[in-house]
Amino acid sequence: MPEGDTVWRLARRLGDALAGHPLTHCDLRVPRLATVDLTGREVLEVRSRGKHLLTRFEGGLTLHSHLRMDGAWKIYAPAERWRGGPAHQIRAVLGTAEHTAVGYRLPVLDLLRTADESRVVGHLGPDLLGPDWDPEQALGRLLSAPGRPLGEALLDQRNLAGIGNVYKCELCFLLRASPWLPVGQLPRPERLPTLAKKLLEANKDRPARTTTPWGHRPPPFGDSRGARPDRRLWVYGRADRPCLRCGTGIRTADQTPAAEERVTYWCPACQPDRPAAGPTD
Fold it and tell me: Which position among 2, 126, 149, 179 bears the catalytic label?
């Protein structure tokens, strides 16, 4: 599932392509929206809210979409061939005179009044990349269930919006905390929202996400030339490979019911406080 920085970047691309232009073509290919035609309406803006996308139109309407695991929005020039997948996977087509945005395999697609957006995103915690970011509120929500494992609390979008499995694993490592540590036992918990904000802000404009000193060149270059692709992340995706800090083999385990989507990576030496009752492998 895309992380908040990926969705933020997608919202910006969609906005750059569509905002300020009226739709010349609209095709919403889900049964409940089959008769909806937004042709002629100007696209006002596209915003992200955590992992949700909100495409706002004149007349007070919002098209709400969520990518989940397999969804995607692709942007094409007028004569460009669509390559995002077979036609039967298309769920939405929004075309202007200059660009066409095509939504593939979108598991969530709703049309609602812009004034009613809270109905689909109002449950979310403060958005790490949004104007409503409030670190104190995010911390309060995280600590409201002090016995909950840290990794699970981070993935709960009601606490803070935008963290996915990659950042969950990386944040736990950077905090030297086990993903199974009760969040109320985290030393200096105020570091958590600050660090999460820092990581997503640093990566929202990068094509390749990185949380280590080796994954991205610092200014004045500010790009990935000379970077180490194999060292962009501390633990995520590094099962059985040596920890970049101590050399211990990175381990994995399932932490949530959606195990195939939420495999947790951690270093047992740098993050040694995993409760004995936790999963074993």
Answer: 2
Give burial (CB, 10 Å; 0-12/13-18/19+) of 203. Answer: buried
Is 204 part of the annotated catalytic residue set? Answer: no
Catalytic residue among 9, 204, 209, 262: 262
129: in domain: no
Query: Domain of 9?
Result: 4-121
* Whether residue 242 has a cis bond before it, omega within 30° of 0: no
Question: Do residues 138 and 189 lie in contact, with contact meaning Cβ atoms separated by under 8 Å?
Answer: no
Strand, coil or helix: 80: coil
Q: Has 257 been annotated as catalytic? A: no
Question: Are residues 36 and 85 both part of a single domain?
Answer: yes
pLDDT per residue rounded down to tens, the chain (281 residues)? 789 999 999 999 999 999 999 999 999 999 999 999 999 999 999 999 999 999 999 999 999 999 999 999 999 999 899 999 999 999 999 999 999 999 999 999 999 999 999 999 999 999 999 999 999 999 999 999 999 999 999 999 999 999 999 999 999 999 999 999 999 999 999 999 999 999 999 999 988 899 999 866 554 445 555 567 889 999 999 999 999 999 999 999 987 654 446 899 999 999 986 544 444 44
Give the pTM.
0.90
The answer to whether position 230 is within a domain reads yes
Q: Is residue 36 part of a domain?
A: yes
Task: Please indicate, yes or no, whether residues 160 and 84 belong to a single structural domain of this protein.
Answer: no
CATH number assigned to the domain comprising residue 166:
1.10.8.50
Question: Which of 81, 97, 121 marks a domain boundary?
Answer: 121
51 in catalytic set:
yes
Is residue 127 in a domain? no
Among 3, 9, 56, 238, the one annotated catalytic: 3
Residue 279's region, left for phi above 0, alpha for psi from -120 to 50, else beta, is beta
Task: Pick the catalytic residue from 51, 56, 168, 238.
Answer: 51
Boundary-marking domain end, from 121, 148, 175? 121
